[in-house]
UniProtKB/TrEMBL annotation:
It comes from Elsinoe ampelina. Keywords: Hydrolase. Transmembrane segments: none annotated. Pfam families: DLH (PF01738). This is Alpha/Beta hydrolase protein. The keyword Hydrolase applies. One of its GO terms (molecular function) is hydrolase activity. InterPro entries: AB_hydrolase_fold, Dienelactn_hydro. Gene3D superfamilies: alpha/beta hydrolase.
Length: 250
């Protein structure tokens, strides 16, 4: 069974430039070496070893000028990346039960781990951002909750999954959303709610809409498809600009 939220899957070319390490009791991919600015990258269902995620983290590190941390938030789960990508591309022929594979990766189980990593970054860096894709989308909003008193300085998410309107309404830091037109997990009513509610919260808000693109384009789009490639580049550039602004160190 393939998750309804993940209709696209494509593995990008390139060689990640960071390193694997341990941070806050998690395996983590780290790239960049800025001592003042950090970005916590919360992965999608393909996990922390997905090459596309690491390549994107490298771009953020270089272009924002930040140290980017991509932790393993699916501990103990060996993600069969190629098999999962094939399942996304050919759902009718999929034999992989993605729901069973990720059955223990609930908000209740993973939110404490995500908060602990964010707290460690907050204690080490002057400015901290969080970016989340698909499964990571709800998580960045948990970090942005106003009751956390600035645990992160800003968030960005693309095609968020499992995100509720109540979670959006609690945001207390600048929010950026990349929303493709075709998305079963971030539906038109969710888009409308975000665009009405978030500007009323007294926080900076940036909404990026992608006509014709589908859920997953930001991390799993096919670069050989021109509209998908342009969307990926636009989303990356907009996220970089967002963090150049909100992670600036005075």
């Amino acid at each position: 069974m393939v998750l309804d939220c993940c209709p696209t899957g494509f593995k990008w070319d390139g060689q990640p430039e960071g390193k694997e390490a341990k941070y806050a009791n998690h395996d983590v991919y780290v790239t960049g070496d800025n001592p003042d600015r950090a970005i916590l990258y919360i992965h999608d269902g393909l996990g922390w070893k997905f090459q596309n995620a690491r390549l994107l983290a490298d771009h953020y590190a270089k272009e924002v000028g930040a140290t980017v941390y991509l932790p393993d938030f699916f501990p103990g789960v060996d993600i069969p990346i190629d098999e999962m990508i094939n399942a996304f591309e050919n759902p009718a022929k999929a034999t992989l039960d993605v729901r069973a594979l990720l059955k223990d990766q609930s908000k209740e189980n993973r939110s404490p781990d995500i908060h602990n990593v964010a707290k460690a970054l907050r204690s080490q860096y002057k400015r901290v951002g969080a970016v989340g894709f698909c499964w990571g989308g709800w998580a960045v909003f948990h970090l942005a909750d106003k009751t956390n008193n600035g645990l992160v300085d800003a968030i960005s998410t693309a095609h968020p999954s499992l995100l509720t309107q109540d979670e959006m309404a609690k945001a207390g830091v600048p929010v950026q959303i990349h929303a493709p037109e075709i998305d079963l997990m971030f539906k038109p009513e969710d888009k409308a709610f975000a665009n009405e509610k978030l500007p009323s919260l007294g926080i900076a808000y940036d909404y990026q809409y992608y006509p014709g693109l589908s859920h997953g384009f930001g991390t799993r789009g096919n670069p050989a498809d021109e509209p998908a490639r342009k969307g990926m580049v636009r989303a990356k550039n907009a996220t970089v600009a967002w963090y150049q602004q909100w992670l600036a160190v005075e």
